[in-house]
Design goal:
The complex is a heterodimer of chains A (about 575) and B (about 375). Chain A is mostly helical and about 575 residues long. Helix content of chain A is about 50%, strand content about 10%. Chain A is built from 27 helices and 13 strands. Chain A has a three-stranded antiparallel sheet with strand order 5-6-13. In chain A, strands 1-4 form a two-stranded antiparallel sheet. In chain A, α23 crosses α24. Chain B is about 25% helix and about 25% strand. Chain B has one domain. With about 375 residues, chain B is α+β, with helices and mostly antiparallel strands. Chain B starts with 6 loop residues before the first helix and ends in a 9-residue tail after the last strand. In chain B, β2 and β3 form a beta hairpin. The chains are: A mainly alpha (about 575), B alpha+beta (about 375). At the A-B interface, α16, β8 and β9 of A face α2 and β4 of B.
Chain lengths: ~575, ~375
């Protein structure tokens, strides 16, 4: 114990003290939660690495919206990152920021700072009033910097940091005194705050989420996320935004890591409307919806597929998922067989149905060829070529995005002419892709992709329904891992019963939550999550809770580098 | 299926590449049609997506052997107030007088600009329908050879540049129809057993509430959109008539009197009144294309024209409302006034393209198909 106290940060010592003051009720609640679970307790876990991750544009924007309100226009665009094992989120820890990107972000920061200090906004966004608008006011500047800096940095600023920023504001007031910008006289005090706010918004600690660890008081040999890092990891995972004031307060006063503290925090976050933002971001990433930004279709072949169609297709699937998993708390697997969705007028054209203005719930009738996400325009159009469908892309997407399987890249020097040649002897995709299976170098992979894609062939490259191709009736029989069926509805049913489907979601959610692909030693934790997910009816909210409260989420591996860093930090203090 | 919005676009499409593209588009649409008919429960709706007065034009302009009418503002001003003339050129006696003629003459039976020649369309060929079932001396033959075509409006307007292809009325009346929700006109066929042959269908006209859906090029329109019926302010546009479909062509019995929305943006209540209105459309699951014809109420035509078209449109259309009003009165061929005996309506026809939409009635549930 003394060793722990010696190695601990002041924040950790505060926690340790408050931990002993934890209420009996909290312990009882925790015990009840564990006791109710029909699954064996979570196995020992090595945890994950602490990471330093680049904040995403959406996270940056969501955080600014929380801090300054949605009235502040922050058109944030960051450079894209590479997808790693199914998720963009897995690459954020290896992403950097170039000088050019910093300039772009600075442009956003400048715009946001200007809007916040604009006369129409500052009276409600800057809580205090300066003694004089033309001169520095350290007390008011300190109040603003402390409050906003804490939310932006995801921790309380130190006295030194506050003093530095306030000093910069005062210096800026003097420097800008009497000057004009774009013909407008700069209001001294607010102009000074604007300069400082712009600096805060591009500060490395704002743009990068820096996680740090501390010894676990329950097992001093084991590290865990410190309270602020835990708050950030939870918040970016569940809300896709920085921690709010309440979560930060819980981290600061020790409540978060006190008995029952994290359960209360996670419970609040799971019931918050902001969970929708978080899960939309997750599924957008998992389903590779970033590709909608560059999706285009040949307007002569698919004149009905417009940019609005693409935008609404993405929105339809996200609305469907959120409604199914969060509003109704239904079985995740049923997303692939459910006929319930949402419809917009532009999208209704693709589906051949009438629609109300705006978005409205819609249920495909029993005799409709559509049910489940695989028959939505988003999946079908994203996994097609600009001018035709693709059985291979569709099969590959299903395996990689929904089953977490890897389909190898094609060997070099492939002759695609047989697929693209409009030979009248091969009117349908089934006949054209048969060449795949006749070529040994292709057959291995195409056997696991094409039978899936062929069952979706009654949907063209834009997602429209069709019964024929080039005058020939489409044969939509297919198979998935030994289960044979006829058409997309059969595929959805087969997929929903495939054990890899929920396991893939578990794997992706855990990766997304912790910021990187699971390492081999996470297998036991993943097995535990899988069993728990099944035992709780494959309900997403329960999965999120289980992962967020798990040791695998919050424990940190005792890597040498981490220990050295901790020791260095402790000795310097 | 997409339809082109302007003549210039139509010309572009005549290039071989565009023709090929259109062919591919048509094939794609036809393929979709086989899988998904828009005819549901015996109903199919179409919304108006292109509309022009039916003016028969030849490349050599043989229908206007004397040339086009010249009644732009400059022509009128020069005619009324010649250099060195007797009239003192005051604002009241020049500009305001011209504007008064353009907008406020409502009793003229003769053209106040009759010192300028007015050229009527010549020849015996015109688009339109045989409205009275007779073949008479003033009737035309259709381009396909059908006799007895009634279209005296063409005789009046056929040599005015504004009504011919690419003229301001030809273009803007269509453009404003597309972009002004007031003009959303649609038909719904009910009781349809077969879209190719059915001798008993019902056609109902409505005004719609929603925007049109353009295709990915932004130049054409997509079948499969939704239009809600304007049940609140659109009642005066609702008419019901019996019709039949033969070999894919819909014809209707006459509607005694129909009001068709025809308004400029920002100008409310622009419409035409057609008496004995008939429809003749080639039908596909995606498009209804053909003619709407009837006897156009001259006074309402004049009122709509003068309250919807600005001076500058009339100017670069080489058009004068006062002259056209006089021509319409002169050539009117139906519905004589009981007291004066003067005809009050003129036969006319409109070329139309309507694109399939799902028509949603106010009490209709849309939770599922």
């Amino acid at each position: 114990m003394s060793r722990v106290m010696r190695r601990s940060t002041p924040r950790f010592k505060q926690w340790l003290t408050s931990a002993f003051r934890g209420t009996v009720m909290g312990l009882l609640a925790l015990g009840a939660l564990v006791g109710c679970s029909p699954v064996d307790p979570e196995p020992e876990s090595a945890g994950t690495q602490t990471l330093t991750k680049l904040i995403t544009a959406e996270q940056y924007g969501n955080s600014l919206a929380y801090i300054f309100g949605s009235g502040i226009d922050a058109q944030v665009r960051f450079a894209p990152v590479a997808r790693n094992e199914g998720l963009l989120a897995n690459s954020l820890a290896s992403a950097g920021v170039s000088v050019g990107q910093v300039q772009t972000i600075q442009g956003v920061a400048s715009s946001v700072a200007k809007q916040v200090m604009d006369i129409e906004n500052r009276n409600h966004l800057v809580a205090c009033r300066p003694e004089s608008i033309d001169s520095p006011d350290e007390a008011c500047a300190t109040q603003f910097v402390s409050k906003i800096g804490r939310l932006l940095f995801r921790r309380a600023l130190t006295d030194d940091e506050i003093a530095t920023f306030v000093g910069q504001a005062s210096a800026a007031v003097k420097e800008l005194d009497g000057k004009e910008l774009d013909g407008e006289k700069l209001d001294g005090f607010y102009a000074g705050l604007e300069v400082v706010l712009e600096g805060l918004l591009i500060h490395p600690e704002v743009l990068f989420i820096v996680e740090s660890a501390e010894p676990d008081p329950n097992n001093p040999e084991q590290l865990r996320l410190d309270a602020h890092s835990l708050a950030s990891r939870l918040s970016f995972f569940l809300w896709n935004a920085s921690p709010d004031d309440e979560l930060l307060m819980a981290a600061e006063n020790g409540e978060l890591q006190s008995p029952g503290g994290v359960e209360r925090a996670v419970g609040r976050m799971l019931e918050s409307p902001r969970l929708v933002d978080g899960m939309r971001a997750f599924f957008d990433d998992m389903l590779v919806f970033d590709e909608f930004k560059t999706l285009s279709k040949d307007a002569t072949i698919y004149p009905e597929f417009t940019s609005v169609t693409a935008q609404d297709a993405r929105e339809q699937t996200l609305r469907t998922i959120i409604d199914h998993t969060l509003n109704k708390d239904e079985d995740y697997r049923d997303l692939f067989t459910s006929r319930s969705t949402f419809m917009s007028p532009a999208l209704a054209i693709m589906y051949g149905v009438p629609a109300q203005p705006g978005w409205a719930p819609y249920t495909f009738p029993e005799d409709s060829p559509r049910s489940g996400l695989l028959t939505q325009v988003s999946f079908l159009s994203l996994t097609s070529h600009p001018g035709r469908s693709s059985v291979t892309l569709r099969g590959m997407a299903l395996r990689e995005r929904l089953l977490c399987q890897t389909v190898p890249e094609p060997p070099p020097g492939i002759d695609f002419s047989v697929l693209t040649n409009p030979d009248a002897n091969y009117p349908t995709q089934r006949q054209r892709v048969a060449a795949h299976l006749e070529t040994p170098s292709c057959a291995g992979c195409h056997r696991i992709t094409d039978p899936i894609g062929l069952s979706l062939e009654q949907f063209d490259g834009a997602g429209g329904y069709r019964l024929t191709e080039n005058g020939a009736t489409i044969d939509a029989t297919g198979s998935l891992d030994g289960i044979e069926f006829d058409g997309a509805i059969g595929l959805g049913e087969a997929l929903s019963q495939n054990p890899a489907l929920p396991q893939c979601l578990v794997r992706r959610v855990y990766s997304y939550a912790t910021g990187g692909p699971p390492e081999n030693d996470a297998r036991a934790a993943l097995n535990y999550f899988n069993e728990d997910f099944a035992a709780q009816g494959y309900q997403l909210r329960n999965l999120l809770r289980t992962i967020a409260l798990s040791k695998a989420f919050s424990l940190i591996k005792n890597s040498p580098s981490e220990e050295e860093r901790l020791l260095a930090t402790t000795s310097s203090r | 299926m997409s339809q082109n919005r302007t003549a210039s676009k139509a010309r572009q499409l005549r290039s071989p590449l565009r023709t090929l593209a259109l062919f591919i588009t048509t094939l794609a649409a036809a393929s979709a049609a086989t899988a998904q008919s828009h005819l549901k429960d015996g109903r199919i709706g179409y919304v108006l997506t292109e509309r022009h007065w039916a003016i028969h034009e030849t490349e050599a302009r043989t229908e206007c052997p004397q040339g086009m009418n010249s009644r732009g503002s400059r022509d009128l001003f020069a005619n009324q107030f010649p250099e060195g003339g007797d009239v003192e050129r005051t604002v009241v006696n020049t500009r305001l007088m011209i504007e008064g003629y353009q907008y406020h003459t409502n009793t003229a039976t003769t053209d106040i600009y009759d010192s300028l020649p007015f050229y009527e369309a010549q020849g015996n060929v015109s688009h339109g329908l045989n409205l009275d079932g007779e073949v008479s001396a003033d009737d035309y033959n259709s381009p396909a050879g059908e006799e007895g075509i009634d279209n005296q409006l063409y005789r009046a307007l056929g040599c005015i540049a504004g009504y011919r292809k690419d003229g301001p009325y030809w273009f803007f009346e269509n453009d404003f129809m597309i972009n002004n929700g007031y003009n959303r006109w649609m038909i719904e066929l009910s009781g349809v057993d077969d879209l190719v042959n059915d001798d008993d269908v019902t056609v109902t006209t409505y005004r719609g509430l929603d925007s049109l859906y353009t295709d990915a090029t932004g130049e054409g329109f997509i079948a499969g959109g939704t239009q809600r019926v304007d049940a609140r302010w659109g009642q005066s546009f609702v008419e019901e008539v019996k019709g039949k479909i033969k070999d894919g062509v819909l014809t209707t019995e006459p509607i005694a009197q129909a009001k068709i929305p025809w308004s400029q943006p920002g100008v409310s209540d622009g419409y035409h009144i057609f008496k004995d209105l008939q429809l003749q459309f080639n039908l596909t699951p995606q498009v209804a294309q053909g003619l709407m014809a009837g006897y156009v109420d001259v006074e309402q035509y004049n009122h709509r024209f003068r309250t919807n078209w600005a001076m500058h449109h009339q100017n670069y259309g080489q058009s004068s409302s006062a002259s056209e009003y006089a021509a319409l009165k002169r050539l009117a061929d139906a519905y004589p006034d009981p007291e004066t005996g003067a005809n009050t309506a003129i036969s006319g026809a409109v070329e139309m393209t309507l694109t399939q939409v799902y028509i949603v009635h106010p009490d209709q549930e849309m939770g599922s198909e």
